[in-house]
Amino acid sequence: MGWGDLGVFGHPSKETPNIDRMAAEGMLFPNFYTANPLCSPSRAALLTGRLPVRNGFYTTNAHARNAYTPQEIVGGIDLDEILLPEILKKKGYVNKIIGKWHLGHRPQFLPLKHGFDEWFGAPNCHFGPYNNTYRPNIPVYNNSQMVGRYYEEFGINVKTGESNLTQIYLEETLQFLRRQSVSGAPFFLFWAMDATHAPVYASKPFLGKSQRGRYGDAVIELDHSVGLILKELRTLGIAENTFVFFTSDNGAALMSGPKQGGSNGPFLCGKETTFEGGMREPAIAWWPGHIKAGQVSYQLGSVMDLFTTSLSLAGLPPLSDRVIDGLDLSPVLLQNTVIDRPIFYYRGNEMMAVRVGLYKAHYWTWSNSWEELMKGINFCPGQHVTGVTTHTQQEHTMQPLIFHLGQDPGEKYPISVLSEEYQAVLRHVTALVNEHRKALVPGVPQLNMCDLAVMNWAPEGCQQLGKCLKPPESAPWKCEWPH
Active-site residue among 11, 39, 224, 483? Predict the structure, then answer.
C-alpha cells in the first residue's frame, strides 16, 4: 500500500473512511518510513528493530539489489536475531501473526519458532497458481500445521480477483481479540494482510465497489476490516488498553499499475526504489485515552521504531547486547515531541540515501536496469527525472544529490552544489553518514542462496491432508536479483 492510497493522505476517491477516522481519533505520521523498499527485509526490520543490513535480510550477490524470500530461498531470519514477540513473552504476552510471514518458509524460520504463540496465514506471498510439479502452491498454516494451499483450499481467482482471504483473516482476528479479552492476558497481534499485493484480490461483496478498480476494491475491504477491528476493541472494552499502529511494508508497486498497483501521492517512483515513493509509508497511531485525537506528528519515523516503542509501552528494557536502530517514540505519541534523527535508505548492501530534517542526500541513484525496463518493468512510470531516476547505478558519493523535501517532495530539483545551502547541508549529513558507516557491522547475508528442493513441497501437516509433494534433488545456486 502506498502513501497516497488513503483519503486522509489526499486520495481523491475518499474510499477509506475507517482508516481516515482512525487518523482523526489518533496521530498521523506523514514522515514515516520502511527500512527497505521491499517486503521481506522491511518486515525483518520491524520485528528486530534493526536495519536489514544488520539483521541479515539482504544479499551480497550483486551491488544494491533488492532480495526477498521466494519459496526457493534457502535462508530466512537469522537464528541469532531476537524478535519482538520473543521479548514480549517475558511479560506474559500472547503473540499472534495473521497473514503473510515472509521471513523464511523452512521449519526453523517459521513464526512459532520465533516467539509467536499462534499463526494463521502463509509463509510466502500468494503468487500462483502453480501446477505442483515444477513449483508448489503456497501453503496456509494454522499454527504449525498446514491446512491447505492458496488456489486450492484457499481460492484466489486471478481472472476475477475474487477471494475470501481477507474475510477469513478478519474473522480469525476478531476471534483472537475475543479470546484475549476473556483471558485478560496482554497480547501482541501482527496483522499482516497482503490483498493489495499483485495478484490483487477482494471478496465478492467488495468487488466492483471502487472507482479505482480491483486494487481499490482490495483497499476498501482492508479499510472495512480496520473499522471492524477497532470497533471490536471498543465493544470488548479494551480499546484504552490497546496500542494500534497502521502502516505498510513498502511503497505502492507502480510497476503493477494501474489495475494492480496503488498511489504514492506526490512522491517519486515506488516499490523497489529508495526514492520517497518506495519507502515513505502511510502511518497512523491510535490509542484512545492516551494519544490525543486529531494530531499530526512531523517526527521522522521508521518501522524499526515500532520494535523499541512496543517494548517501552510494555515496560520492557531495550536490548543491550546489539545495535538497535529503532527509537522509542512514546514521547512523540504521548507528548507530540520531535526527536532529531536521520533516516537511512538502504537497497540491499548499499546505503543509497539519508534524510536529515527536511533534506535528503542521495549517494547512489538507480530505478532499475535498462534490461528490465525493456521487458516492461518500470518502477517510475511517467516520472523520468534526468540524472535522478537512472537506469544504471550512478554513484554520487563525492557530490551527493541533495533535495529539500519540504519544497520538493517529488525529488525533481536538486539543490545547486554551488549554494551555501548545499554546502551547509553536506557538512551536516557527511558527519552523520561517516559516523553510521564507521559503526556499521553487517550481518551474515541470508538471501544469497536458492534451491528448488527447499520449496513448499511437504510442509508439516501435509500428511494428514494427503497433499505432500515430492521435491527435486537439491541443486543450490546463487540467487539472481535483477533489481
Answer: 39
